[in-house]
Design goal:
The protein is mainly α. Helices cover 80% and strands 2% of the residues. A two-stranded antiparallel ribbon has the order 1-2. A hairpin with a 6-residue loop joins strand 1 and strand 2.
Length: 208
C-alpha cells in the first residue's frame, strides 16, 4: 500500500475515531434516552485513550495521537451526559448501576494493567497490553446491547464509525508490523460489527 493511501486512511481513521462518540453524545442529549448504552464502556474509553496518547508519544506514532486526545475529551463528554440522565442511574441488564460507578470501574480496569506493563516490560509491554485492551474495549458496550431489552439509546452511526476506524488501525498496524494495533483493530472491528448486527436485527424487527 502506498504511503499516500495509508495517510489518507489515517485521516479517515482519526475522523472516525475522534468523531464516533459525537453521534452518541448528540443522541443522549437530544432524546434523554440511555437505553442500551454502557457506562462501563465510557470509562474504558477514557482510560484507554489516555494510555494510547502516552504510547503514541513514547513510540512516535504520530498518526495515532490526534484521535487519542480528541476521543479522550469526547468520552468525557459522554460520561457527563450519562451522569445527568435519570439522576445518574442507567437501566442495565444487571438491574441498574450508577453512571458514575460504572464509568469509574471502566477507568480503573483499563489504567492499572498498562501501568503494571510499563513497570515490567516498558513501552513495548504497554503497547501489547493496549492492543489486547483495545481488542476488548467494546465488549461492555456489546454486552449492554445484547443484554438490554430496549436499545433505543444506542447510536448506529457511532458503531459504523467504530468499525471503520478499527479496520484502518488494523491495516496501519500490519504495515508497521505493530502487533498492538493489529490485535486491537481486529478485536475492535469484530465487536463493533457484532453490535451493528444486533442493532440492525432489532430495528428490522421493530419495522415489521
Amino acid at each position: 500500500m502506498s504511503v499516500s493511501v495509508m495517510w489518507l486512511l489515517l485521516v479517515v481513521a482519526n475522523i472516525c475515531g475522534a468523531g464516533m462518540i459525537v453521534p452518541q453524545v448528540v443522541r443522549l442529549r437530544r432524546t434523554g434516552d440511555a437505553a442500551g448504552v454502557s457506562a462501563a464502556w465510557t470509562g474504558v474509553g477514557l482510560g484507554l485513550n489516555l494510555w494510547w496518547a502516552a504510547y503514541a508519544v513514547a513510540e512516535q506514532l504520530w498518526g495515532l495521537l490526534p484521535v487519542s486526545v480528541v476521543a479522550l475529551f469526547l468520552y468525557a463528554a459522554m460520561a457527563w451526559e450519562l451522569r445527568l440522565l435519570e439522576g445518574g442511574r442507567l437501566l442495565t441488564p444487571s438491574g441498574g448501576a450508577t453512571a458514575i460507578g460504572g464509568t469509574g470501574l471502566g477507568v480503573l480496569s483499563t489504567t492499572v494493567p498498562p501501568a503494571l506493563a510499563l513497570l515490567i516490560g516498558g513501552w513495548t509491554g504497554v503497547g501489547l497490553t493496549l492492543g489486547v485492551a483495545y481488542a476488548v474495549q467494546f465488549l461492555p458496550a456489546l454486552a449492554s446491547v445484547v443484554g438490554s431489552v430496549v436499545r433505543t439509546g444506542v447510536s448506529s452511526l457511532t458503531w459504523i464509525m467504530a468499525l471503520t476506524e478499527a479496520s484502518i488501525w488494523m491495516l496501519y498496524g500490519w504495515s508497521l508490523a505493530d502487533p498492538a494495533l493489529v490485535i486491537g483493530g481486529m478485536g475492535g472491528g469484530l465487536a463493533a460489527g457484532a453490535i451493528l448486527m444486533v442493532l440492525a436485527r432489532t430495528r428490522l424487527v421493530l419495522s415489521t
